[in-house]
Amino acid sequence: YNPLLLSSPAALGGVIVRDEPSYSEFAGCKRAKELLEEFLPSDLLYHGNLFPDYATQEQLYNRGTGNPALPGEGYEYARYIDDYIEIFRPRVLSYDYYPMVGEDGYIREGYFGNMSVIRNRAAEAEIPFWVYIQTCSFNASVRVPDEGEIGWLVNTSLAYGAKGIQYFTYCLPNDDGEVFRGAMVDREGNKTPIYDYVQRVNGQIAAVDEILMCSFSEGVIVTGSTPCPVPEGDIATAYTERIEIEAGHVLTGCFDHRGNPVYYAVNNSIAEPDRAVFSLEGQKGYYIVDGEKREFENRVEILLEEGQGVLIVPEG
User: Fold this and answer.
1) Which residue among 126, 204, 273, 274 is least packed, with the fewest CB closer than 10 Å?
2) Each residue's pLDDT tens digit, 8-28
3) Per-position b or e across 53-62, b if 16+ CB within 10 A of its CB
């Protein structure tokens, strides 16, 4: 209990109940939420952030403590998500996935697969999903992302339908079992180059959120190559007849915005730019790139830098 929380409730948006809880902690998280609800405002967000799918079954079930014992049939990731939703009843489904590993541009292959599970479970529960964006390294096998990689992480998340973007981390943590590098602000409070990377991509988020926050994700279209497999069930087949895309490597999120189609496309490469052409015969509207709004008629032709995103809004 902290009386300061009650003295300035307008400054309190929510409570982080547990970061990366295991199944064995779900009931305790629920009870903590119930206790907090007794003396805090009722409209607060009680937040939990889930493990990625590369966590071990022991981490997912008992956080590696061995208590309770792992079920004989094991404990799969999809069940972990389902149990969390059923027990904790979250208002948003949040998870982290840090795919920039090694030093040679490698991306964990399960990136879109994990996002697919989260996206689908969130849709079934009729709640939004949030992601964490990697801005730092915390061990020797994880690299500090560059600007194109941070843009790719943010923009692929938006294309997949994420409604919340979180960053790990803002300030560089002290080393305590893990060795940290990167982040937006160093331990002396100085802005790093990553601060500017995030600021630029946040400008794009601010410019497109009025549309994307009010749109329902219908799936994605994969054009050309992709650094990670996209689950076949996520392909928006109904939209492939509405828009023609020519590109070397573009991922296009397809959305229903109040009954009308809109598209959020991203250069699906962290290594090279891509000149993409989006043909929408007989239609005109606007697109937003780098936070700037521009008009189009019949087609959008644009050079997308590594990881860069563009919102395309047909209006007739």
Assistant:
1) 126
2) 567 788 999 999 999 999 999
3) bebebebbbb
